[in-house]
Design goal:
Blueprint lengths: L24 H16 L4 H19 L7 E4 L2 H11 L5 E5 L8 H4 L7 E5 L12 E7 L11 H9 L4 E5 L17 E5 L11 E5 L1 H4 L39 H17 L1 H18 L11 E4 L15 E3 L2 E5 L6 H11 L6
Parallel strand pairs: 2-3, 2-4, 4-5, 5-6
Antiparallel strand pairs: 1-7, 6-7, 8-10, 9-10
Amino acid sequence: MADFTRFFESGPGFLDTATYGLPPRETVDAISRALSDWSAGEAHWFHGWMGETERARQIFSRLVGVDTSQVATGPSTSVLVGLVAESLPPGSTVVAPEIEFTSNLFPYLVQRDRGVRTKLVPAEAVADSIDSATALVALSAVQSSTGAVADLRQVYAAAHSVGALVLVDATQAAGWMPLRLEGMADLLVASAYKWLLSPRGAAFMAIAPEAAGRLRPIYANWFAGTVIEESYYGPPLRLTETERRLDPSPAWFSWVGAAASLELLETIGIESIYAHNVTLARELLERLGQPLPAAPSAICSLPVDESTYPRESKLKASIRDGRLRISFHLYNTAEDVLLAEQTIGPHLTS
């Protein structure tokens, strides 16, 4: 198995990428240079810092197989999902799993005063719950607490059979799981601070052509202008025809870091990252005698006795929905699997 630890400062024991990812060395260096330029008053903010937003947009577009013009950026999943929710026609019905991360749920629930109905169903029943009244199906590619991988193609086919759109939250998938917009989603949203190893404050939304015309640019601002340098003051409204028309203006340093991190991920290759991550996860489950998931995942959800599990240890992980969540990424090795086995094994409850 390849060793990618040379790209990172971290030592063994960090198994919590599902909470936040660790930055590559080059990402830390890029942000440090930006901070140094800022403090010296020598930054080229337009072509330098802001240009990194475009570089990150270009890399993400390649990772999900779309043209760069089809990608909007923003600060978080909920901001981008909120834009979609606000664009739904009054009276729309949204189908979502009953245990869905709230950044891809609350934005629809707050639309109740416009008659938007959110129908919550078991995760395994999403495709079968889509009917002619459905306007949008919202689900995660990988479930946040359990690591379960959704059958996106099945949901997409069911939704398109009745003319509904599919919005996929790929925050727990983008960066380790191969993804393509075509055949999987009409709108694919991902915050970059987890598996994309970026600073918090960077997120993407890839948009299929059939969905683009239904979205209202509610954050319209100078950065969304046709020519940014000519969009600082006054009317008329002059938004670009690309999906940058949907962007809030970027938080510069977040995008400086995001561009550097995505460049490394693209260089290594998502298929190689997938193989690395799921191999480590499978090895841990096998060592602990736990069942393997139906579809391989980089996230393991393990039943532990919370009253005895050591909260202070070399192993960094999270408790989610009453279970221990372990997540493997590039900076993890077989050494982490052994540490996890030794730490977790005595506290398993089943």
